[in-house]
Amino acid sequence: MPFDIQVLDNGTVTSPKGFRAGAVYSGLKTPGPGKLDLGLLVSDTPAKTAATFSQNSILSPSVTVSRESLKGGREKRAVVVNSGNANCAVGEQGFKDAREVVSLAADHIGVDASEVLVCSTGVIGVELPMGLIRAHMGTIELSDDGGNDLVKAIVTTDKRLKQKAVSINVGGVTVSIGGISKGSGMIHPNMATMLSFLSTDANVEQEFLSATLQAAVDVSFNMLTVDTDQSTNDTCILMANGAANNAEITAGTAEGELFAAAVTDIAIHLAREMARDGEGASKLIDSTVTGAYTVADARMAARSIASSPLVKTAVYGRDPNWGRILMAVGKTSIPLDESKIQVFINDIQIVEGGAAIPYHVESVVQALGRPEVYLRVALNVGDGDATAWGCDLTEEYVVFNSAYTT
Amino acid sequence: MPFDIQVLDNGTVTSPKGFRAGAVYSGLKTPGPGKLDLGLLVSDTPAKTAATFSQNSILSPSVTVSRESLKGGREKRAVVVNSGNANCAVGEQGFKDAREVVSLAADHIGVDASEVLVCSTGVIGVELPMGLIRAHMGTIELSDDGGNDLVKAIVTTDKRLKQKAVSINVGGVTVSIGGISKGSGMIHPNMATMLSFLSTDANVEQEFLSATLQAAVDVSFNMLTVDTDQSTNDTCILMANGAANNAEITAGTAEGELFAAAVTDIAIHLAREMARDGEGASKLIDSTVTGAYTVADARMAARSIASSPLVKTAVYGRDPNWGRILMAVGKTSIPLDESKIQVFINDIQIVEGGAAIPYHVESVVQALGRPEVYLRVALNVGDGDATAWGCDLTEEYVVFNSAYTT
After folding, report:
1. How many angstroms separate the CA atoms of B62 and B197, rounded?
2. How crowded is the C-beta side of B128, counted as CA atoms within 13 Å?
3. Which of A340, A59, A309 minimizes the C-alpha distance to B326?
4. Closest CB from B187, B192, B395 relative to A398
5. Nearest-CB residue to B57 (from A314, A319, A334)
6. Which whole number is the average pLDDT over B276-284?
7. Which residues of A touch B353 (CB under 8 A)?
């Protein structure tokens, strides 16, 4: 890595200075040992905030309320989040409830309601059990390492927790960036909600912060929504509270580049972990397309490979069916020159000039058996590169999703 | 149906006058009882021909050779087709082989090579075994009911044969239209190839014939390619030889409308049968979206529902998870008014105004158990309607596709 980015041990969203978090079990999810379902991420001082939301035409009122809050001002103190209920497709009640959740959180931590964002994930079409939330919001205790609880409070069908923090040196000052996420952008539990909360104690110029988050999301979470599914609740929030007291980071500077690289590093880590955690997944698929005419072409092709059910089942079955990979590239209708195409599976080349070359089949079968499978298509016509992440498609996915609410 | 369209008993692509077909087993597919893999559809006289082809960036040379042939002239005598080998991703040899197959077919039936189109379907990346094709082309015997053999010669993983013919009365003259197809536009065996051959003895003006085929494909096969997969070999060909001796059918006439309705009827029948025959499918999903702002919006939304893995698994599991249906509509980002949305499963309404209404759950579970499941979303904001077809997603799909070539 060309940038000097230090990974923090046991890093989480409260690793940066001036962030605290906490979570409780309020009864929104079915009970279980250690389960949490209502949490808060709080900055001790107003934090410049950037966010990206689902483009779905049908949005959770929690998303709409947060989006409107950001229009009213981008300095925020907290995010309140619940799992177990998406607060979606419940009519006007959803807006009323989202605003009350915000209000309850603001009262509990002693800030203005305009400074609190709200996120929900879980079952759709069922009203939020506000009685439970009212009863438990006040019991949330915040702590400096509360990110470790908060990450548990946002999961639904996740099998592993996703969190990371890093530090960088900005003009002699160490600043940290942390993040947590839940869900899988690809194999979608109950509306596929992807939630991600990032924090930093860096002092960052607001417009640059927003641009940095959007750029990081584009090469991470947006390369994970490989079957174009987007939930009604997808949200990624980045809060920067400036507690590190560095000189403000701005666009077009070496510090800005380093900061953006660190944010992107965390976002890609979280996205990869989400792909790995896809329902029923046995393998992470890392799909890279190089040498397309444009980056947009490469992005389309990389996502098409990682999302193709035929590629996903072939990877699951350890079947070096490179024809499916070519089909997935071609179905995007991007311009290419078939005679220049090379295909690699975990760096073993199996296609040259658009046609199969002799390769050791058993080596490829073994490569396809690894927990991370790298599929790479070199188009060799331009400079557009992109990577997408997905996972294999297994019987377990079908079993799981054919009986989620019943 | 507002049009008077008669279904012909045991109808097939050779039901219209002046069409013959035949097929043999040449060894391209693994042997089996009754298996055929090389066939011909022949018109006794030059037929006006229209065709649509895959938009995949990577095309089988068989597609490219046929497309170029049509640019050179749209009156054709025959289509030669093989299954078991897609003649794709084999470099320059593929073009050489496609042209030789055309030439062998033309010689056998005594027409000019420029009058013969070629289609291939099957394994990708393996050169056509030309020795087998050379040895067997001359043994194909044509007959008036040869459509019943030809339909067997085009199948790959299909579990059922797809064919239909109808007749209509055009100005006092009975004309017939027949069709056969293979594959599934949705759940894609080995590159998903969809081949469809339609024939008619009607005398039809060439431009109107082409427009009619394109319009019919748009509301049938193109509403089946619901996961946006398109194979390298997809082809639909319609030949009109005028053997019925009717006055030429043209655009903007009642006869033209009737003819278009009959072609569409066959195309939709074949498309639905292909959805029903999806790999591992246990049910046909008929997804209709009404009242969108535009037909384009309705088409996107209908396809999104029918292709959503979460909807497909929910239908398989008889899970009335209407939230997934709403998510699938919304993820297209089409404009809508959530408060006007209604959702019906086999005509049982379960959503009104974007939120669940009380319904008898067991009735919906039973409806989801039928071999044909009708999902209908009424957006109630405009006049755009569309229907798409798909099938449920089962463990069998995963098992089948994770071990196709190995």
Report:
1. 15
2. 32
3. A59
4. B395
5. A334
6. 82
7. 91
DSSP for A250-288, please give it.
-TTSHHHHHHHHHHHHHHHHHHHHHHHT-TT--SEEEEE
DSSP element (H, E) containing B210: helix B206-218
Per the CB < 8 A criterion, the answer to whether A247 and A204 are in contact is no
Q: Please report the pLDDT score of residue B345 as a whole number.
A: 94
User: What is the pTM assigned to this prediction?
Assistant: 0.85
Query: Which tokens in the block code for residue B72?
Result: 């050179």
Contacts of A89 in chain B (CB under 8 A): 323, 326, 338, 351, 354-356
Which H or E run contains A218?
A: helix A206-218
What tokens appear for B336 in the block?
A: 């809508």
Give burial (CB, 10 Å; 0-12/13-18/19+) of A399.
Answer: middle
**pLDDT attached to residue A230:** 62
Top pLDDT among B36 and A221 is at: B36
B357 within 8 A of B195, measured Cβ to Cβ: no
- The burial of A238, by beta-carbon neighbours within 10 Å (0-12 exposed, 13-18 middle, 19 or more buried), is given as buried
Three-state DSSP class for residue B111: coil
ipTM of the complex: 0.77
CA A399/CA B393 separation, integer angstroms: 10
Q: Is the confidence at residue B268, as pLDDT, over 70? A: yes
Under 8 Å between Cβ of A374 and A345 = yes
Q: Does B333 touch chain A (CB under 8 A)?
A: yes
Q: Which residues of A are catalytic?
A: 193
DSSP letter (8 states) at residue A298: H
Dist. CA A155–CA A152, nearest whole Å: 6
Comparing CB atoms, the residue among A91, A403, A406 nearest residue B354 is: A91
Q: Note the pLDDT tens digit of each residue in B107-121.
A: 999 999 999 999 999
Cβ contacts of residue A151 below 8 Å, gap of 6+?
A12, A13, A161, A162, A163, A180, A182
Is the CB of residue B256 less than 8 Å from the CB of residue B93? no
Residue type, B112: D
Report d(CA B38, CA B82) in Å as an integer. Answer: 4
Query: Any chain A CB within 8 A of the CB of B123?
Result: yes
Residue found under tokens 């309320």: A65
- Report chain A residues whose CB lies below 8 A from the CB of B192: 310, 327
Q: Which residues of B touch A405 (CB under 8 A)?
A: 319, 321
Structure confidence at residue B327 as a pLDDT band (50, 70, 90): confident
How many other C-beta atoms can be found within 10 angstroms of the C-beta atom of residue B347?
Answer: 8
E strands, A233-371, are 235-240, 284-292, 342-345, 348-352, 355-356
Does B124 contact chain A (CB < 8 Å)?
yes
Q: Between the CA atoms of B298, B303, B304 and B308, what dihedral angle is there, to the nearest 10 degrees?
A: 150
The answer to whether B155 and B166 are in contact (CB under 8 A) is: no
Q: Is B193 known to be catalytic? A: yes
Instruction: Please list the rounded mean pLDDT of every run of 10 residues in chain A (406 residues).
Output: 89 98 96 95 98 88 97 98 92 96 98 98 90 98 98 89 97 97 59 84 98 94 67 89 98 97 96 84 92 96 89 87 88 92 94 90 90 96 95 78 56
Residue of A53, A56, A57 to mutate, interface with B, max B Cβ within 10 Å: A57
What letter would DSSP give residue B249? B
Residue B90 has a CB neighbour count (10 Å cut-off) of 22
DSSP code for A399: H
Q: Cα(B325)–Cα(A194) distance, rounded to whole angstroms?
A: 18
The catalytic residue among B14, B49, B193, B332 is B193
Question: What is the rounded distance in angstroms from the CA atom of residue B223 to the CA atom of residue B300?
Answer: 9
Q: Give the nearest partner residue to A395 out of B324, B327, B395, using CB atoms.
A: B395
